[in-house]
Each structure stands twice: as structure tokens, then as C-alpha cells.
Amino acid sequence: MSNVKKVCTGCQIAIEDRRYFLCGKCGQYYDLICANVSEQRFYNTMTKEHKNAWRCVLCISKQPKFDNTNTPVRAVIDAVTVQRGAAVTSPMQLDMSVVENPQSVMDTTIETYHNMTIEMTEFQSFVLEMRAFREEIREEMRANRLESKRLNDSVAALADRITECESHMKKLDERVEQLEVRLSDKRDGTSTLSAAIDQLKSELNERDQEFLLTDIEITCIPEQKEENLLTIVNKVATKLGVTLHAEDVVSAVRMGRILDVTRSPATSRPRPIVVRLARRAMRDRFLDAVKVRRGANTEDMNLPGRPCRFFVNERLTKRNRQLFRRARELARDLGWRYVWTKDGRIFARHRSGSDAPRHHLRSEADLSRVFGTVPSRTSTS
């Protein structure tokens, strides 16, 4: 195969494929456009013999004219005049004039070919521009198709991610529902457990209070170092008019944090004296005597410090003591007249009269129910 580079003689553009003609006479190459042959005709109509016999325009124009002496000459009609449009020169005369001036015919043919070549060159430039524009459009279309494919792939991937997220969210919703159900069950169980714990605390508190049914608590008695509490208890009983024997007192101690009493009688609030009596009847005598002799004080009891009022109450558990204190505060703020204790139980009444009911307070929930307000949470352990 020859490696000679083929260039179209008409447009001077290199021929890259097999779509061209080779002039059988001058040996010049022409592409299909300059040869004025369509691709359909080149591939479908022209045979190999036709292609080999093809001649370029220049070679065809150089071929001599054939003799036309055998061509019959039209006779001159005498009746036709010049005024009626008859030809001044007969066809024979025209043919003879052409034969007589072959060089003029050749020059005209060459000039016509050059004009055709110029027109073909301009047409070839236009065709090339159209081809370049077509290729540019194709490139843009290919780029658009590629970008569209990438966009479709991205949208498909995003749709898959969304589907995956929806599936994950559905699983999470199911888990949340399960957890809510379990939490609800646990809350129910916790509420039941809390109610059971509160019930147990209440029962333990009542049992502890029963152990204190023989105890009394004496407050506001001045405290001093190395004091004899049994003697003080006897003085209090004498002040209240209660006959007390030595066997009636089981124990007497001060409860609470120890105060600084290194000097003369303490000036700060003294600790209460807790007295455990041998019988519950003796405790009731003390409490009844206090009701009769309200406002009793330490005067004539030979105790240090200035005379001051003292109080005798039944002893309460820590939980009942806090509940009693809170009930007295609420009663004072809300205008309730009566809050008292009896046998370790706490009662409240809004006013005097049979139409005012007596309320038994066992817990802080009872405070909210009776006084119509939510009390602040305090430790009742």
C-alpha cells in the first residue's frame, strides 16, 4: 500500500479516507465534493470500471471537439425575414466559427473551469465550516449526554440513599415505639413499686410511732454542763402538778447536736429533753396537765438563766415531725386555726364548729389534698 499523502487538487485539503477519485489521465486526486459526486452514488451506483474511467474537469476540457460535418444543416427558409426573428447567421456558420477559433474556445473553457474551481473552493470552505459546526454540536451533545448520564446516576444514587434512610428511619420508629411501650410498662411498674414503697414507709413510720407512745419531749429548758436530767424532769412534773415516782421514768436524754456549754448556762436554743416513761397513762397525765397549765415557765425551778416558757409534747418520728412542721406552716399561711397531734397522729381543722371536718394527715400528698397546694418536697426518711 502506498504511503503517499493524498491532497485534493481542487480544494488542496488532505484526503484522509478512501472517498476520492483518481483521474485516469492526469493522475490527480479529487475528493467527492470537488468531483461533484454524492456518497450514495459513489458507493451504490458507480462500479469499479466507472471509477477507473473517471476524468477530471481539466482533462475533459482539453479533449478536442468531434467533427460535426455529418450533422445535417437546416435549410434556409426564404420566407423568414430578419424582421420576424430569423437568425442572421445559420447554424452551419456558427459551427464553422467555433471550429475556426479553437483557442478562444479553450480559453473560455479554462476560464470557466477556474471560475468553477473558485466556486467549488468557496463551497468547500462552507462545507468545512458546516462540518466543524456539526462536530462542535456533536461534541456538545456528547458532553450533554455524559452530564445527563452522570446526573441520572447521581439522582439514582440519591434515591437509593433516600430509600435506605427511609428504611432506617422506619426501623428507628419501630424501636422507639418498642422502647416507649417498655418505658410505659416500666413506668407502670415503677408507679406500682413507688406506691408499694410509700405504703411500706407509712407502715414502718406507724410502727416506729407506736414505739414512742410512752415518750414525751420537753423543749426550751436551759441546758448546762453536767446537769441532772432526772431532777429537771421531776421539777417539770412538780410545776405541772403531776406526781412522778422514780420508777415511772425509764430514761431521760437530750436529743440533737451537742451545743457549746463550756461557759455559764447556754444562751442559744437548748436541745430538747426526751423522756421515756414506764406507762402510757403517765404520758397522758403529762399531756393533760400541759393543757390545763398553758404558759408554764421555768420560774421557781432553780434553773440557770432567766425564766422562760417550756413546752411538753408527745414525741414524734422524724417523718411525722417534718410533716407536722410543714402542716403548721401551711395552716399559718392559709388561715387554718387548728393543727395538732394525738397518739402520734397529725390532724388539722380549718375552723371551729361541727361543720368543719377534721383531717388526718399521713403524708405530703394529704397536705396537697387538704390545703389545696403542692408542698415543697422534704426528706421523710
Automatic annotation (TrEMBL):
Q: Which UniProt keywords apply?
A: Coiled coil
In terms of InterPro entries, this protein maps to:
FP_C, Transposase_22, Znf_FYVE_PHD, Znf_RING/FYVE/PHD
| Chain ranges of the FP protein C-terminal domain | 317-369
Which SUPFAM superfamilies did the record assign? FYVE/PHD zinc finger
Q: What does the record list as coiled-coil region(s)?
A: 155-189
Domain of life the protein comes from = Eukaryota
Q: What is this protein called?
A: FP protein C-terminal domain-containing protein
Q: Which organism is it from?
A: Diatraea saccharalis
